[in-house]
Design goal:
alpha/beta; 6-stranded mixed sheet; single chain; globular; about 25% strand; 8-stranded parallel β-barrel
């Protein structure tokens, strides 16, 4: 007979067994590879070997594993083809051998500073030429005939010389781009104050590119007649076709073909490098691909396409897109780390610009939460390696949190869908449609998937997928998404009046099918106290949720905004508003509210300018959202590749009637009508589709609705999502490996309880046992780890 004491004993034994299983995994987790970037960037030739040795010892003592060094073509073959010079790389190899550090060779051929003069004068050189102006850029074209033979000669010699020396940790490919990324020219004006024609745009007007495009069309369409039927054009010869800039008059099919070709050619160029390297590199020598930015047609970046290719050749991915604020970093990197995870490849993160002291821990948490295998910091961000000195505050921050850099698999069962084909049809050049998920990460952890991952059958680890406005999807992706729902997935999708699927090169490329969702009643309402005065300081991390379009990292009180910089805020639609801009505007331009111009700002030097605007309530169109857009000319900067258009310190919105002052919109409650919600559900097999009504919601309000539905309101028999936080408080939690990792990104110390409900699903393969995690006095910028009790799902 079992008595209560036996039950207690069994319970204790069971808990201990789970905890023992978790603790036993500790020794299995490898540390992430830590790289200090470009330490020799301006040091070729290495003239002070003892200083470099001291620098390497400092880095090693701080926990850095690898010096990443720019090793451009001109370093290997400065004088003539075949005359290889190993002087400088031998010096570096010897320094690492003596100090116990390792080095990563970042090999580049295409950027202007990487190319030897003898090649420029050889008659072989072909620069990229833009479609917009028909002007050349001083970056080698990826279509340059014969360039691959030079790459093979140098890369094979370098591999054969160093790959069996333990000091060489890895090789990273700098296949193109302004700084070696797998991208087309993206707007950098060059290093060392040299200028050349460069901008965000389309770089395929050079003759070899035109020929490649026509050959691709010939291969897939065979005849001009077939091409015309698909595109709605009237060409008599395929060789007359030229890549054209996207516009509304261009058929969707033509633009989809052009965009996929343009991105696909960059992916093919990566494969050329991979094939060469795999001929000579031993299988266990790590090979990396350097890339940057978001999934963008303009720069030729196909995140999932390049991740799929890396998986084929066993190449790691490095994304150079991070700043210092975790929520912004998350939105800019999670699509790539998701693709890397689902395709089974290693990935890592590198900053795109300066990292603040607070950004050190933010980046550590970001890499850990995403399941990365490496992380990269530049000179001066952890310590000054060039002067061989610690930077007390930064070094202390690094040493306090670096032990969290372990390679552990994250558990995530929610994914946001980026509809890349739909975005192309809407002439979006990048991931604008992902913006609706800004702010959601503060409530729940989620991944970002797209048409490529769906059609490759990579959705099965998720239980919930969120889909915003979408009218077009890849046919295979659509089929796989429906299969995923029938097998138990829950799709929460926006209303759709019509829906199409795309089958490239088929007789009917775009075909109408049944929409995934239908019209739904508004089942989510907010009780909100509207602000009469709202002050936004774009430089403050907390303001990042309000920003839309292109913004750079925070610079104290300020933040640079690009050509499409804007913000979305909540206001009272019955009030007239006054808008005050304080800050810098170098060149000037126009300001728009909900698409209507309200005035201009003249450019001027300095950052202490002030402009005032009136915003009548008629522009609010009875909605609670105000979209502000700044359309300014960029500052022409030779040393900074960004679009530097506005530099605001403070943006103030206040009602004209002097009503009681509420400084921020306060959401008092969310009201969800369960009956209306139930009528918005379409059951399919073991899963269902829930229609999300397209109502005006700010990013934070959308996040609150999704959080409420997933956590409490699901009207179907589905496993609960594990939401260890579920509040917009600047506290971020990630379940990974044997732990819950918690990070305080806010300004105040946090004490709270995180409840993981029993049998909640971590992903399709793992369930939580159930536990309460007590977070006690977690200081700002601190990370803490708590043991996670898990069980394998059936």
């Amino acid at each position: 007979m079992i008595n209560k004491y036996m039950i207690v004993a069994l319970t204790v034994i069971l808990c201990i067994s789970f905890m023992s299983a978790s603790y036993s995994r500790d020794n299995e987790y490898k540390p992430m590879v830590v790289l200090a970037g470009s330490v020799t960037n301006t040091m070729w030739p290495i003239t002070d070997v003892p200083m470099m040795e001291r620098s390497a010892l400092l880095a090693r003592d701080l926990g850095v594993d690898v010096f990443q060094t720019y090793t451009p073509w001109i370093t290997f073959e400065p004088n003539a083809p075949g005359e290889l010079d190993w002087t400088e790389t031998d010096k570096l190899d010897a320094i690492c051998r003596k100090t116990g550090l390792k080095w990563q060779a970042f090999i580049m051929f295409n950027p202007f500073y990487a190319t030897p003069k003898w090649y420029r004068n050889s008659g072989e050189d072909v620069p990229h030429r833009c479609v917009e102006h028909n002007k050349d850029c001083d970056i080698r074209s990826i279509w340059t005939p014969g360039l691959e033979k030079h790459i093979e000669r140098v890369l094979s010699a370098m591999i054969n010389r160093y790959q069996n020396r333990p000091e060489l940790e890895s090789i990273m490919f700098g296949v193109s781009g302004d700084f070696g990324e797998s991208l087309y020219p993206a707007g950098a004006a060059g290093w060392w104050s040299e200028k050349y024609h460069n901008h965000g745009g389309f770089w395929c007007a050079e003759e070899p590119a035109v020929k490649s495009f026509c050959n691709w069309l010939q291969k897939n369409y065979k005849t001009a007649a077939a091409l015309n039927r698909s595109w709605g054009t009237s060409y008599t010869d395929i060789n007359d076709v030229r890549f054209e800039l996207p516009n509304e008059d261009m058929s969707d099919v033509r633009w989809l073909d052009q965009a996929e070709w343009y991105r696909g050619e960059m992916t093919n160029w990566c494969e050329t490098w991979f094939k060469i390297a795999r001929k000579y590199a031993r299988p266990d020598l790590p090979l990396y691909l350097c890339t940057g930015g978001g999934d963008s047609v303009l720069v030729g970046f196909d995140i999932t396409g390049q991740a799929r290719l890396c998986a084929k050749y066993g190449v790691y991915l490095r994304l150079t897109s991070e700043g210092s604020f975790y929520p912004v970093n998350f939105m800019g990197t999670r699509q790539l780390t998701t693709a890397a995870k689902l395709y089974g490849i290693h990935s890592g993160l590198e900053p795109a610009n300066e990292v603040t002291e607070r950004g050190i821990s933010a980046r550590i948490f970001g890499a850990a939460a995403a399941g990365c295998n490496h992380i990269h910091y530049y000179e001066g961000q952890l310590a000054s390696f060039r002067t061989v000195e610690q930077i007390p505050s930064r070094t202390k921050e690094w040493l306090r949190e670096k032990d969290h850099l372990l390679q552990k698999d994250p558990y995530v069962n929610v994914a946001a869908f980026y509809p890349r084909i739909d975005a192309l049809c809407k002439r979006q050049m990048d991931t604008v449609s992902i913006n609706r998920y800004n702010g959601l990460r503060d409530y729940i952890d989620f991944d970002i998937v797209d048409d490529n991952l769906a059609k490759d059958g990579k959705l099965d680890r998720y239980r919930y997928i969120l889909l915003g406005p979408c009218e077009t999807m890849d046919r295979k992706a659509h089929s796989q998404l429906l299969r995923w729902v029938r097998e138990g997935g829950i799709l929460i999708a926006s209303e759709q009046e019509s829906f199409r699927v795309w089958s490239q090169f088929s007789a009917v490329p775009l075909r109408n099918v049944r929409p995934l969702t239908s019209k739904a009643e508004n089942w989510a309402k907010f009780v909100v106290d509207m602000p009469s005065k709202l002050i936004i300081s774009p430089g403050q991390p907390s303001s990042a949720y309000d920003l839309t379009g292109s913004w750079s990292h925070s610079e104290g009180k300020f933040r640079w905004g690009g050509k499409d910089a804007g913000m979305l805020i909540t206001v009272d639609p019955t009030k007239d508003y006054k808008f005050t801009y304080k800050g810098g505007v170098p060149k000037g331009g126009s300001v728009f509210v909900n698409g209507e111009e309200i005035g201009t700002m003249e450019g001027g030097e300095g950052n202490e300018h002030t402009w005032n605007f009136d915003i009548p309530k008629s522009l609010l169109k009875k909605g609670t959202n105000m979209q502000i857009d700044f359309r300014m000319k960029p500052l022409d900067s030779a040393s900074d590749p960004r679009d530097l258009c506005i530099y605001p310190e403070e943006l103030t919105f206040e009602t004209a009637d002097g009503s009681p002052n509420i400084e921020f919109p306060v959401v008092k409650a969310i009201e969800i009508d369960r009956e209306k919600l139930s009528s918005s559900i379409r059951v399919m097999g073991r899963g269902c589709i829930i229609t999300m009504p397209e109502i005006e919601l700010t990013h934070n309000q959308y996040a609150m609705v999704i959080n409420s539905v997933l956590k409490e309101m699901l009207p179907v028999n589905a496993p609960a999502i594990s939401i260890p936080d579920g509040r917009a408080d600047g506290l971020f939690a990630a379940c990974r490996g044997d732990e819950v990792l918690v990070y305080n990104s806010g300004e105040e110390t946090i004490t709270t309880d995180l409840i993981i409900s029993k049998n909640s699903e971590l992903d399709r393969y793992h369930s939580a046992v159930g536990q309460k995690i007590e977070v006690k006095e977690l200081a700002p910028d601190h990370i803490e780890s708590y043991k996670l009790l898990i069980a394998e799902s059936k």
